[in-house]
Each structure stands twice: as C-alpha cells, then as structure tokens.
Amino acid sequence: MSASTIQMTASESTPWHVRSALRMGLLGGVVAMFLCLVGIVPVFANRPLIVGIVELGQAALLIAFGAVSYLAARGEAGVSRPRAVVAGAVVGGIAGLFLTGLLLLGLSVNLRAVFLNASQGLYDLLTDGQGASWAWFPIAAGVVTGALAGLLAGLPTRVRSVFLATLGSLVFFGLFAGLLRTPMLVTPLASLARSLLAPDGLTVGGATVVVLGTAALLIGARVIQPRRRLDALPKGQRRLVTAPAMVLLLVLVLLFPLAMGSFFAQVIATVALFILLGLGLNVTLGLAGLLDLGFVAFYAVGAYTVALLTSPGEFGIAHLTFWQ
Question: FRET pair for 159, CA 20 to 30 Å: which of 29, 113, 222, 285?
Fold first, then answer.
C-alpha cells in the first residue's frame, strides 16, 4: 500500500474538528466586528501599510481572519493538507459571515446611535464601495484568507516559520515606516529612505526588501547556525567572540538615539525604565515570594537624583546632559 493511500485512509477515518472550527470562526467574527465598531478599521482605512497594495484597516481584518483560520487549520494539518485548507476556508468564511451580518443590519437599522463608528464609510469599506449587492464580499475575503492560512499551516515547519516571520516583519515595518523615515531624511541615507519608506507605510520596493531581507536572514541563520557554532567553541575562544560582540552592541545602543532622534531616545528610555521596574517586581514577588514594594523607593531616589543633575531649570544642580 502506497504512502498516499495510507494518508488518504487515515484522513477519511479521522473525524473533523467541527466544534473547534465553529469556536474559532465565532472568535474571528467577534474580533472582526470589534475592530470595525471600535474604529480601528474605518479610522485606518486610508493609512497604507504597503502603499498601493493594502491599507492598515484592511490588514487588521485580514490578520484577524488569517489568525483564527491558521489556528483551526493546524489541527487538521496533521491529517492532510487539503483538510487544513478546507478548515481554514470554513473558519474564515464564518468570521466573514459576522461582518456580512453587521453590514446588512447596519444598512437596515441605524447603529450609529450606539456605535459611532458604524458609518456609511465602514459599510463602503466592507463592500469595496459596491453597496448592499456586495454583502457577500466579507465572506469571500474570509474564505480566501482562511484558505491561504490553511495552506500555510500545512507547510513544513521551517518553511512556515519563514513565512510567518516575513509577514510579521511587513506589519512591523509598515507600522513604523514613518518613524524610521523622518530621522533618516537628515542623514546620507535620505534617498534610500524615500525609495523604501513612505510617510505612512512601506513602498512596494520597501516591502520587497523587507520580505527578501527577512527570508535571507532566517535562511542564513539556519544554514550557518551561529548559536550552535558558538556553543561548540572552547570557553576561552567563546569569550573572544562574545566580548567584542557585546561591546559593539553597547556602542550601537548608545549611538542609536543620536542617529534616530529625540523621539526614539525618549521611547527607549521609557521602555528601559519599565523594564527595570518589572525586573524588580520579578525579584521580590516572583523569585523571593515577598509582597514588598520597597524597591520602588530606590527607583524614586535614582530618578530624583538624575532629575536634579540634568534639569536645565532653576532647581537643577549640575545641568548635565545625558552624555555627561
């Protein structure tokens, strides 16, 4: 008996996870309606993620459809890939059905009395501007997105991880492209910034670079296996490799605020402060098991001292800068 015959027999004898698919479809529909009614979809409908390709509001719905479809399809991917595709398409269609219901309800009842974002602009977005005759459009979008997510779930683990990381990189750089572009415009990289990064979102060329770069990094890391090579080195040689790398990382961290501007410096400082608070809570509550908040006093003393030393106001003592 061939392997394909055995797999077909196993898939026919394995029951479908109908309840799980219904739950995931229900979850996806609720999340999609939430994104629409709280204003995320209509507000960001004109904010590009990739210029000329997809807007941020559309991407939010597609991510919701794809996420629940992917989770449902993974349960079927171990049986057969066609079942994973079918499961993803069904779950995506169920999630899209909720938006179709919201659309039809909103066209017949004034929902804006309760939900301010249930506007005609939202309904036009859900129907691609075609009106009630295209009420099926969210279902079709959910089915297609779900089928693609099911196809992704059926891929080998290494290939799937590359695709997921690439999609994550596109979303990340698409969201923060404008923040990255502004400081780069005052550097020798200004022309590169204009070609890859739009004021809001990535250009098509920038999206291509992000996809190829992320895939190349992941594939290269799998081929070279730097962590495994580093662990295989003797302890003395390992220090010779890690010490310069740590120094280089520290230099990059110190130079990053100068290169990217004051906004990024403020964000990094705020994140670092909360990381310190989290580490303190982890030591006292997590490791020691003590409900002790006294360490915040040391945090306050340090913050007050830095304020006195660096403040340019009348209460400043030394008027030092960050670099002093």
Answer: 29
| DSSP summary character for residue 317 | S
Q: Which of 93, 143, 136, 111 is closest to 42 using CA atoms?
A: 111
- Asked whether 138 and 126 are in contact (CB, 8 A), the reply is yes
Cα angle value 267/166/78 (rounded, 5°) = 125
Alpha helices of the chain — where are they, by DSSP H? Answer: 3-13, 18-37, 40-43, 56-77, 81-108, 120-126, 137-153, 157-184, 190-196, 204-224, 226-232, 235-260, 262-281, 295-310
| Bridge partners for 50 per DSSP | 54, 202
Rounded CA-CA distance 35/17 in Å is: 27
DSSP letters spanning 173-214: HHHHHHHHHHHHTTSTTHHHHHHHB-SSSB-HHHHHHHHHHH
Separation between Cα atoms, residue 205 and residue 64, nearest integer Å: 26
- Do 147 and 88 contact (CB within 8 A), yes or no? yes
Return the pLDDT at 322: 60
pLDDT in tens, 29-85: 999 999 999 989 988 988 899 988 889 989 999 999 999 999 999 888 877 888 899
Helix, strand or coil, per DSSP, at residue 262: helix
Structure tokens at 5: 């015959």
Residues of the chain above pLDDT 90, percent: 31
Strand partners for 55: 48
CA pair distance 206, 195, nearest whole angstrom: 7
Could you give the CA distance from residue 68 to residue 251 in angstroms, rounded to a whole number? 42
Q: Is residue 34 within 8 Å of 61, Cβ to Cβ?
A: no
The b/e string for 111-144 (b: 16+ C-beta within 10 A; e otherwise) is: beeebebbeeebbebbbeeeeeebbebbbebbbb
